[in-house]
Amino acid sequence: MRCLARLSSKALLVLCSLLALLSLLLWTRCSQRPQPAPGPPEHPGVPDSEEASPQDAPRAPGMPGSAGRAPRYEEIDCVINEEQTVKGRREGSEVFLPFSWLERYFQVYGRIAQADGGERFEFSHSYSKVYAQRAPYRPDGVFMSFEGYNVELRDRVKCISGVEGVPLSTQWGPQGYFYPIQIAQYGLSHYSKNLTEKPPHVEVYETAGDGNGNGNGEWTVPKGCSLTTVWDKTRLTGVKQFSCPESSEGVSLELNNGRDFIISFDLKLLSNGSVSVVLETTERNQLFTVHYVSSTQLIALRDRDIFYGIGARSSWSTLTRDLLTDLRKGVGLSNTKAVKQTKIMPKRVLRLVAKGRGFLDNVTISATAHMAAFFAASRWLLRNQDERGGWPIMVTRKLGEGFKSLDPGWYSAMAQGQAMSTLVRAYQLTKEPAFLGAALRATAPFKLPAEQRGVKAVFMNRHDWYEEYPTTPSSFVLNGFMYALIGLYDLKETAGEKLGKEARLLYERGMESLKAMLPLFDTGSGTIYDLRHFMLGTAPNLARWDYHTTHINQLQLLGSIDDAPVFKEFVKRWKSYLRGGRAKHN
Amino acid sequence: MRCLARLSSKALLVLCSLLALLSLLLWTRCSQRPQPAPGPPEHPGVPDSEEASPQDAPRAPGMPGSAGRAPRYEEIDCVINEEQTVKGRREGSEVFLPFSWLERYFQVYGRIAQADGGERFEFSHSYSKVYAQRAPYRPDGVFMSFEGYNVELRDRVKCISGVEGVPLSTQWGPQGYFYPIQIAQYGLSHYSKNLTEKPPHVEVYETAGDGNGNGNGEWTVPKGCSLTTVWDKTRLTGVKQFSCPESSEGVSLELNNGRDFIISFDLKLLSNGSVSVVLETTERNQLFTVHYVSSTQLIALRDRDIFYGIGARSSWSTLTRDLLTDLRKGVGLSNTKAVKQTKIMPKRVLRLVAKGRGFLDNVTISATAHMAAFFAASRWLLRNQDERGGWPIMVTRKLGEGFKSLDPGWYSAMAQGQAMSTLVRAYQLTKEPAFLGAALRATAPFKLPAEQRGVKAVFMNRHDWYEEYPTTPSSFVLNGFMYALIGLYDLKETAGEKLGKEARLLYERGMESLKAMLPLFDTGSGTIYDLRHFMLGTAPNLARWDYHTTHINQLQLLGSIDDAPVFKEFVKRWKSYLRGGRAKHN
């Protein structure tokens, strides 16, 4: 018993020590509280009212000074405009407000991010970035910041048409329609990427021989099919002739490329037929096949087969397809205005399969084929300009409450301008007069008012404006107007003094209007998309941040070709709004 | 030893228990941390860009989901727009930002306030309040919300002139000048207070007898001075005649009023002389004396003597003075544009002292004397209207960079309008034709452009506007325009169809312009003070919150006399901006 007592006495001593240590530890941890913010915040004094507006009572309330004691960290009810209560935190005289409230209230952005091994919170006033204007803008150079655009990946692009080679929009109608603005932007973005990106590696799989036995691909020809190398008199080169019943497996060319996904080949069909490409995908390594079929069907999906109609192709043409886009648009196929989201990606291009009767040549795979996309857009614009010089937009467009609907067949100054920018570039590359001629004819709608299917509006009887949407009443959409001006600039610079005279006059009058009217789009903390508030007597239609940065990008471009100070000043101020800057108040 | 062991074993047991208890306590306290905010914040999705502005990359960054563990409370660096770092607090996925940063960044307001026994934080988006529009506005009713104005207390009012009975402004020049807008507002605020406040108690100290021996004050007449009651034939009443050398103590009337501070008396001087009022003040109970002297000096301060010149006063007139204002303007006297701040207040009116030779009658003290102030303003306007119908403003006014200076002698549509509102009210009370005649003549400058010393501007060749500041180029100040319209309304309503025809036409054309141009002043989150941004190509001159609420108060007033929906809609939206509301973005 005594031993036990002695033993337990020792044990108790150890226990005591341990508990004391634990107490000390807990005490220390409990006291480790964050430092208080440095002193009370400054009081932004409200300036004394001018005679005109003498509200005498109100003064900005200030924060009481911090007490001498160490600040406690505690929850505090924060009453917002006497309307709602959010839970904040308080340490002495400093109050902390939760970002989850703040981001909704002020429409700002933030996230916890990794930095230097630790975490930090990154707050941003806006989500959109302005591009640096490199060199002065040129009509044969990069178009604004379009090298960063990926038109075909937008979910309102249903797919790239196999027949036309250009995107089909579903923005204002799920049925899909060819939207000249989207098509021009598709062309201009690829034109710009071509200037800013390195030339791609091109893997050649089949050239049907160079006469020395080189350039033949690894073909598999099943029973009942034939594949021969023949001389094509029109092209002065050997080509592969294939003949396979539709019911057969088809002749198949081994590709096995796991790096790049732009396939290109020359094709001439003698009957109905198809060229299909078999893809290994990220979707549990499933195989998907994209079929390019001699029909006019736009796009279809059956299980893991995706179909694009490419027309009859009864004479030679080159088909260049982005297999990534074709796969994703097929898997995401939908009857709505937006392509369904999908994570699927191609992993490997396994092989090409041809059926029916026809000829193939120059089968290649590369990372990009920007000029093919650019010329697809340029030639679509050539083919689809009407007798009035316009690209009629075959969808109903209702800009908003208070505006009459634009019925299918309306023209857009933005479409006309972006088409000019595209066509002028095609002309500079090819010197084909058709491109310049189309661009010159595209000025015609600029001279007619909306009632006569033109795109011209006049602000307050004084300032000529070119309407992205020639609504009644006029809407004065800013970004579309500036794109129209850029198109006119491209054209007048390219066409020369005589041919380009009309474009020059339209450009100069438009620039005058722009310089005079820019302030009407400035809210002091952002920009306004159009002037519907003035035309309809409503609230201003504020531009969201990506339109705001578009405005800035456009002004930067215009400022590089016109040294009026207004451009530099507005760019500077409008940029500052992206970081929370504001115009002064009185 | 064994006993000790046994004893210490017991002691150790107790110690162990105590330490265990302490550990438990500390553990519990340590764990009592503030609750985390409910889940991760919502992600405001950025809508997909329209064709016109297809920035493809940016998406609003979101917050990562909260981890399953109990959130720790810790400091976190918050990087603001990649520009500065502030110390925030973090609990799990919620981040708290310090209000000391937030108030400067967003220009908002907040303070810790007592409520229900505890403390809470009160956040406000703006510091200015809108007044409720009571009944529909009437030309003989309260003027807008002016019953809340205290013109004379503004620090840009040097003092109330003893000669003129109206305020003298130092807003744009420390020398001081009579500013018709300030004078009209002084009149209109007192007119409005007279309608909204209870009639004051009036303490009568001297009426020089009613013939029955009543109404005589408690006078002290030192040696060498005389004081007698005499009959005044022009006034048909007894009055006090006094005669005292300037070097004497003067005859003195006991007042001893600790409640009210507006003194009033009828005075006629036969020589140079003065009436002084001795005040006990809050300044260590020091005595200050306010001297009303037969000179034209504006104001002077020597030690604890304050001097106001009141002119010769050689015929009967009533002098009504707010001793609180007179004391504070004297003590705060300064050579700058603003009266110095002072905490001094009168505590008790001890006595009145008269020197020189003259007559006194009807000495009273009351809490207010609004009609005296109103008529002082109205009669000043009558006396000071010039042959062109205007009240020339005798100070140089430079509205801002880009505008020519207005040279002394310029007219203001706001001054003309506020004078109309004042004069029409004086006419309705007195039926004196002079008041109406002056108001009618005041329309003349509305018909002339700035180059001809008029106040009319025309916006874009279309909309007539009445300029608070008839600058070159035009400035289109909104609040001044609306005050001018209210004046024209008051006049056309009061003058009747025939006499008021001109005012009616001016009013109607102005209202048309207002309805058309209001949207140009709307930023989607506040309002713009004027249109200088459009006229000069600069940043918008944002209206601070008290001008914003003035705009709203004016629109509410106009909406009560014109049922066009635009007024109700704009009032509703502009009110919402005070609580952080915003117009929609696209």
Note the topology.
The structure is a homodimer of 586-residue chains.
Chain A: H1 2-31, E1 73-80, E2 84-91, E3 94-98, H2 99-106, E4 109-115, E5 118-124, E6 157-160, E7 167-169, H3 180-196, E8 202-206, E9 219-220, E10 226-232, E11 237-244, E12 251-257, E13 262-281, E14 287-293, E15 299-302, E16 305-309, E17 317-322, H4 323-331, E18 346-366, H5 370-384, H6 413-430, H7 433-441, E19 456-459, E20 463-466, H8 478-499, H9 501-517, H10 532-536, H11 545-561, H12 565-577
Parallel strand pairs in A: 14-16
Antiparallel strand pairs in A: 1-2, 2-3, 4-5, 6-7, 8-18, 9-12, 10-11, 11-18, 12-18, 13-14, 13-17, 13-18, 15-16, 19-20
**In terms of per-residue confidence, which ranges of chain A show pLDDT below 50 for 5 or more consecutive residues?**
1-5, 28-68
Q: Kindly name the structural category of chain A.
A: alpha+beta
Characterize the biggest β-sheet of chain A: 11 strands, mixed
What percent of residues of chain A adopt helix (DSSP H or I)? 25-40%
User: How many helices of chain A does DSSP assign?
Assistant: 12
Roughly how many Å apart are the termini of chain A? 90 Å
Query: How would you classify the quaternary structure?
Result: homodimer
Number of strands of chain A: 20
Global morphology of chain A: flat
Mean pLDDT of chain A: 89
Largest interface: A-B, 150 and 150 residues
- Percent strand of chain A equals 15-25%
Radius of gyration of chain A: 33 Å
How many structural domains in the coordinates of chain A? 3
